[in-house]
Amino acid sequence: EIVMTQSPATLSVSPGERATLSCRASQSISTNLAWYQQKPGQAPRLLIYGASTRATGIPVRFSGSGSGTEFTLTISGLQSEDFAVYYCHQYSNWPPPSTFGQGTRLEIK
Amino acid sequence: QVQLQESGPGLVKPSQTLSLTCTVSGVSITSDLYYWSWVRQTPGKGLEYIGYIQYSGSTFSTPSLKSRLTISLDASKNRFSLKLTSVIAADTAVYYCATPGGITTGAFDFWGQGTMVTVSS
């Protein structure tokens, strides 16, 4: 099983600043990586797929990069609605199995 | 636009069977563009991919649950279901149905709102 490790567990950033979240895969997954945002009581929302492609309707302040085992989600000009938990998700062997990271909580500084 | 809605009991006794249904709207469940999937979320283990089914008959169950898990599909009602037998407390979770949208390959575009299932006597 491919293990996904996210860091940091919690990130404190001020509104208007940039947040950088990391995700590492235990083996190469090419660019078969997605990022999701989850707010309390809601389902995850797809932000990025293919490591760097924004999903439909996702603002341009969200960007993804990386390939192989190291990936980054960058959120520029943080807005109040961006404070949430973010998960990475690898789907390298799709159809499944696929695995999720444990999440990074982005909180207001 | 694909819409998904989970339904089922919120409380299940240990050793009994957990049964959930996901009703699909906006698209036919017979389209093999989609992988009709179940994902669960617990505070301890986070998000866990459980398995999928397609109309063509293709299925997958995560190895840790395979002996207890059945995923089925009812095309006449445009819905699919999950049955997990011999449940234990560790099966307590929010259960989501979800599917990739086709162009996103294995990334989940579409999710239900989730249903909380508690395993307790």
Account of the protein in words:
The complex is a heterodimer of chains A (109) and B (121). Chain A is mainly β. Chain A has strands spanning 4-7, 10-13, 19-25, 33-38, 45-49, 53-54, 62-67, 70-75, 85-90, 99-100, 104-108. Chain A has no helices and eleven strands. The model of chain A has no long low-confidence stretch (mean pLDDT 96). Chain B is mostly beta strands and 121 residues long. Helices cover 0% and strands 51% of the residues of chain B. Chain B contains no helices and eleven strands. Chains A and B meet through β5 and β10 of A and β5, β9 and β10 of B.
Gist of the model:
The complex is a heterodimer of chains A (109) and B (121). Chain A has no helices and eleven strands. By secondary structure, chain A is mostly beta strands.
Name its key features.
heterodimer; A: 109 residues; seven-stranded mixed β-sheet; four-stranded antiparallel β-sheet; B: 121 residues; mainly beta; 0% helix; globular
Give a topology summary.
The complex is a heterodimer of chains A (109) and B (121).
Chain A: E1 4-7, E2 10-13, E3 19-25, E4 33-38, E5 45-49, E6 53-54, E7 62-67, E8 70-75, E9 85-90, E10 99-100, E11 104-108
Parallel strand pairs in A: 2-11
Antiparallel strand pairs in A: 1-3, 3-8, 4-5, 4-9, 5-6, 7-8, 9-10, 9-11
Chain B: E1 3-7, E2 11-12, E3 18-25, E4 36-42, E5 46-53, E6 59-61, E7 69-74, E8 79-84, E9 93-100, E10 108-111, E11 115-119
Parallel strand pairs in B: 2-11
Antiparallel strand pairs in B: 1-3, 3-8, 4-5, 4-9, 5-6, 7-8, 9-10, 9-11
